[in-house]
């Protein structure tokens, strides 16, 4: 608040006017009393009695107060200025220090990072040092052992050297020379009986030749062995390939899912069949191309088989969730196998019980005699039955024969009787004719007589035919 | 002089579900004990005679009857004795005197003496035709080839003194000799017919330790000494076929063996592994490790277990003690150990040269199907590998370090000894431990098979004993 200018007191204030004197008096008194000054105006019956002394004292006091207040205000202002400038200064230093703090934090982090790197470096270097130390120790050990070996060797050679020197001395000193030589009663022949040969250029070249021959034989043998082995291995590889192809094919037909790969498989199958053709040539033809083709196709097939097996494995493990109907889930598969096993077990038991029973059957005769007797009795029974049947059969045959005989006899008799009958008839007719020839004229009878032999002949023929027929049927 | 027959009293065998019991069918007879010195006892190549040296005497016996057929006397103690390939002659070498004496079986009064004189003698051997003798002089100055047929003498200079510097092919036609001139290794191939130098070539080794022909005589395997792991394969005509090195620096090859079909070359080294090279590519097809803990294999671990016989107080009569020393000799049998099994390891002394670690002995069976190996820091165990499956088949763990193991030349059967009074036999059907029933102690130091595979010759320090093994029937 700006200090009140002194000059303002010179200007008459518009606080009090002629009209509001009493109010002003009251107001002033109130103010003075609030400030603990005695009132300047005695308030008695609306009289404006100004107590000049009191008033002057009050004014003096007020002036003093004012002066004091102004002084205080000035001081406060000064202090305020100071503090604001201090504050400003503090703000400035604060921001400066904050910046510094940031910078030093960054610096700190950088230093931490560096320290960490250095530590890791230190660790690796320590490891290297350890390794190097171990290596050094190892090499030192090697050097030490080599040194002992060298020393040992040197000592040995030195001893030998000394011995040589001694012997040389001995030989120089010794007078008599001990000549070396061989005494033999008689020379013996060579072990193979042949005579010794002179050394000539021819023998030398012969030796060379023999040496090379030996080497060549060895190479030939080895090459032959390797060839045989090679052929065997090729055969095995081809068989393996064929089997793998076969297995893959059969798997593919029962699996319905590999539709995509089917085409590629077919194509590889085709290439496989192509493979076979160059290899069907002579097996010794070991051209690199054919060999490579074979090994590549084997690798391919093996990879396919491996994938297939892996897929089956994963399917077997996934199949427990019941993925699709086409895959036989593992559980079902297991159930199936359990069922089959049970069935097998039952069958086995059945077979066993049967065997037991059979054994029992065979074993119930406790000794051989009864068994033999039983066997014989069985045989007898059979024989009896057979005999019975034979007898019956024989009877039947006899009967049959008899019947046949009777039949033929009957037929013959019938024939005879018929003949007789015809004869009789013929006789009778003849008689009739003869009897009636006197009564009738000759014409119809001549006709009849013509007919009769015909008739009788015809009838005779009929009879003979029927007889033959009858006889045939019998 | 007939031999006493004693059936061995202990032939027990524990079996697993895979092996059949065979002890009841086979019987082992042992012969009488004869004297020998220097472990010099050899059977003739045709199998008919047995020659032993006793001090300066050479005793030749008929193998079947063990009767002495010839007796020869040499001029000094015999250090080396060898039959000629046709079984007609025997050479006896006396290194101290520098003498070699040759005896004939057909004509006992025939004699031959080779005197190397002041040059001295370090080794002596027959050539494969049985008519030449190769003497190596002292300090390996030269090899002298003496002929029994002609008056010719050949000299070969600068032979190398190494583990195995000289080898003949199986058919006896060629000889390979390692030489060293001017700090370089050379290999010479000679034709044994007339000792004609066929090939002479430099070897790519730093310090050749040994060479060996393949059984088919076409490939020569050459290996470096233990400071460098290197195997070189040379063809008969001197061409380098291949070179194989498993690793650098550490101690290298300790032993090498060809399989009898020449298909495989087994290389045993100081890192306790055996590497098998194949004859087609000369590359490693597999390596056999010898770990201290066995687990996860189909192999069977046989452990020899000694059982002390229980002695009752009433048995301790003087009579019993003197007559039956089997009472004090421990019986032993094999038990099958459960996997995982621990193989006993003896750590070698690190400061010594040629440390006792690594595969020091390799042997293929005669039918090529099995390989037996011995790892020096597991000296009590013998490892048997199946070459068809290229895997471990069996481990035999003995109670004492093994001294010697040999394959039967006819069938897949292995005999081994550990310096005690027992001989051990292994075959794919199982294994058995047999006491040598000899009065007094008979510590079997080494053994070898007769060429027919029907008997074993056991050698102790001063004696020999024959062991007749019947062929087992397959069960």
TrEMBL record, chain A:
Coiled-coil zones: 94-174
The UniProt entry lists the main location of this chain as: other
From the Swiss-Prot or TrEMBL record, state where the protein is found: Cell junction, Adherens junction; Cytoplasm, Cytoskeleton, Microtubule organizing center, Centrosome, Centriolar satellite
Write the record's keywords in alphabetical order, separated by commas. Answer: Cell adhesion, Cell junction, Coiled coil, Cytoplasm, Cytoskeleton
Query: GO CC annotations?
Result: adherens junction; centriolar satellite; ciliary basal body
Instruction: Give the record's family classification.
Output: Belongs to the ADIP family.
**Protein's UniProt name:** Synovial sarcoma, X breakpoint 2 interacting protein
**Organism in which the protein naturally occurs:** Cirrhinus molitorella
Automatic annotation (TrEMBL), chain B:
Please name the Gene3D superfamilies in this protein's record.
YVTN repeat-like/Quinoprotein amine dehydrogenase
Return the GO cellular component terms, semicolon-separated.
Answer: microtubule organizing center; MWP complex
SUPFAM superfamilies the record matches:
WD40 repeat-like
Q: Domain of life here?
A: Eukaryota
PANTHER family per UniProt: WD REPEAT PROTEIN 8-RELATED (PTHR16220), WD REPEAT-CONTAINING PROTEIN WRAP73 (PTHR16220:SF0)
Give the protein name, as stated in the record. WD repeat containing, antisense to TP73
Task: Tell me which species this is from.
Answer: Cirrhinus molitorella
């Amino acid at each position: 608040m700006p200090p009140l200018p002194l000059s303002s007191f010179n200007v008459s204030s518009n606080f009090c006017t002629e009209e509001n004197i009493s109010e002003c008096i009251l107001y002033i008194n109130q103010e003075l009393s609030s400030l603990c000054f005695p009132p300047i105006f005695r308030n008695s019956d609306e009289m404006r009695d100004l107590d000049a002394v009191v008033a002057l004292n009050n004014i003096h006091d007020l002036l003093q107060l004012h002066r004091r207040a102004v002084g205080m205000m000035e001081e406060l202002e000064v202090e305020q200025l100071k503090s604001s400038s201090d504050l400003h200064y503090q703000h400035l230093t604060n921001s400066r220090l904050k910046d510094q703090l940031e910078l030093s934090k960054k610096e700190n982090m950088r230093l931490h990072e560096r320290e960490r790197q250095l530590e890791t470096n230190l660790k690796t270097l320590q490891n290297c040092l350890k390794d190097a130390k171990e290596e050094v120790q190892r090499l030192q050990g090697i050097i030490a052992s080599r040194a002992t070996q060298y020393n040992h060797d040197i000592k040995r050679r030195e001893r030998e050297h000394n011995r040589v020197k001694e012997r040389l001395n001995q030989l120089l000193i010794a007078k008599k020379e001990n000549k070396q030589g061989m005494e033999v009663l008689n020379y013996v022949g060579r072990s193979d009986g042949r005579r010794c040969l002179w050394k000539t250029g021819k023998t030398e070249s012969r030796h060379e030749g023999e040496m090379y021959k030996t080497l060549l034989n060895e190479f030939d043998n080895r090459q032959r062995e390797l060839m045989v082995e090679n052929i065997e291995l090729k055969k095995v590889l081809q068989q393996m390939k064929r089997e793998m192809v076969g297995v893959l094919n059969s798997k593919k037909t029962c699996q319905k899912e590999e539709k995509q790969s089917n085409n590629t498989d077919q194509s590889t199958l085709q290439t496989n069949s192509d493979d076979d053709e160059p290899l069907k040539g002579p097996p010794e033809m070991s051209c690199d191309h054919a060999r490579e083709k074979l090994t590549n196709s084997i690798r391919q097939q093996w990879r396919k088989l491996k994938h297939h097996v892996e897929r089956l494995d994963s399917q077997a493990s996934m199949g427990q969730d019941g993925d699709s109907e086409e895959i036989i889930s593992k559980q079902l598969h297991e159930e199936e196998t359990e069922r089959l096993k049970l069935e097998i077990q039952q069958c086995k038991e059945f077979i066993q019980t049967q065997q037991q029973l059979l054994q029992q059957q065979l074993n119930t005769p406790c000794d051989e005699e009864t068994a033999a007797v039983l066997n014989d009795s069985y045989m007898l029974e059979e024989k009896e039955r057979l005999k019975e049947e034979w007898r019956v059969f024989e009877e039947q045959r006899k009967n049959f024969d008899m019947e046949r005989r009777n039949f033929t006899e009957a037929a013959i008799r019938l024939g005879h009787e018929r003949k007789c009958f015809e004869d009789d008839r013929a006789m009778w007719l003849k008689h009739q004719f003869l009897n009636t020839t006197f009564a009738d004229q000759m014409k119809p009878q001549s006709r009849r007589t013509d007919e009769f032999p015909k008739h009788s002949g015809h009838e005779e023929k009929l009879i003979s035919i029927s007889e033959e027929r009858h006889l045939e049927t019998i | 002089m007939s031999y006493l027959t004693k059936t061995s009293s202990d032939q027990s065998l524990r079996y697993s579900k895979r092996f059949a019991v065979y002890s009841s069918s086979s019987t082992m007879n042992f012969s009488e004990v004869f004297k020998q010195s220097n472990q010099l006892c050899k059977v003739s190549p045709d199998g008919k005679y047995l020659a032993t040296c006793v001090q300066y005497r050479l005793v030749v016996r008929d193998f079947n009857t063990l009767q002495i057929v010839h007796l020869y006397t040499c001029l000094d103690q015999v250090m080396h004795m060898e039959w000629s390939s046709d079984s007609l002659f025997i050479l006896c070498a006396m290194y101290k005197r520098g003498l070699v004496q040759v005896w004939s079986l057909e004509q006992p009064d025939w004699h031959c003496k080779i005197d190397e004189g002041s040059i001295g003698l370090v080794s002596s051997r027959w050539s494969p035709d049985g008519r030449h003798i190769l003497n190596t002089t002292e300090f390996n100055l030269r090899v002298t080839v003496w002929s029994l047929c002609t008056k010719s003498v050949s000299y070969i200079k600068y032979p190398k003194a190494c583990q195995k510097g000289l080898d003949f092919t199986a058919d006896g036609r060629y000889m390979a000799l390692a030489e060293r001139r001017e700090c370089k290794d050379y290999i010479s191939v000679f034709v044994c017919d007339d000792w004609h130098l066929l090939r002479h070539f430099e070897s790519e080794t730093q310090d050749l330790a040994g060479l060996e022909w393949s059984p088919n005589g076409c490939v020569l395997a050459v290996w470096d000494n233990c400071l460098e792991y290197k195997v070189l394969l040379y063809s008969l005509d001197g061409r380098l076929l291949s070179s194989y090195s498993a690793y650098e620096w550490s101690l290298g090859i300790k032993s090498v063996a060809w399989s009898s079909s020449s298909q495989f070359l087994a290389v045993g080294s100081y890192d306790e592994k055996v590497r098998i090279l194949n004859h087609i590519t000369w590359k490693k097809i597999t390596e056999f490790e010898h770990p201290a803990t066995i687990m996860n294999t189909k192999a069977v671990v046989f452990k020899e277990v000694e059982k002390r016989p229980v002695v009752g107080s009433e048995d301790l009569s003087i009579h019993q003690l003197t007559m039956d020393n089997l009472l004090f000799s421990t019986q032993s049998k094999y038990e099958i150990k459960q996997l995982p099994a621990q193989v006993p390891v003896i750590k070698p002394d690190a400061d010594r040269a040629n440390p006792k670690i690594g595969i020091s002995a390799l042997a293929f069976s005669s039918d090529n199907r099995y390989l037996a190996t011995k790892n020096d820091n597991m000296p009590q165990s013998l490892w048997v590998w199946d070459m068809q499956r290229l895997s471990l088949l069996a481990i035999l763990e003995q109670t004492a370090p093994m001294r010697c193991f040999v394959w039967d030349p006819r069938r897949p059967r292995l005999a081994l000894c550990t310096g005690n009074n027992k001989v051990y036999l292994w075959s794919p059907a199982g294994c058995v431990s047999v006491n040598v029933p000899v009065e007094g102690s008979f510590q079997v130091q080494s053994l070898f098979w007769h060429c027919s595979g029907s008997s074993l010759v056991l050698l102790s320090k001063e004696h020999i004993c024959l062991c007749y093994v019947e062929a087992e029937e397959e069960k």
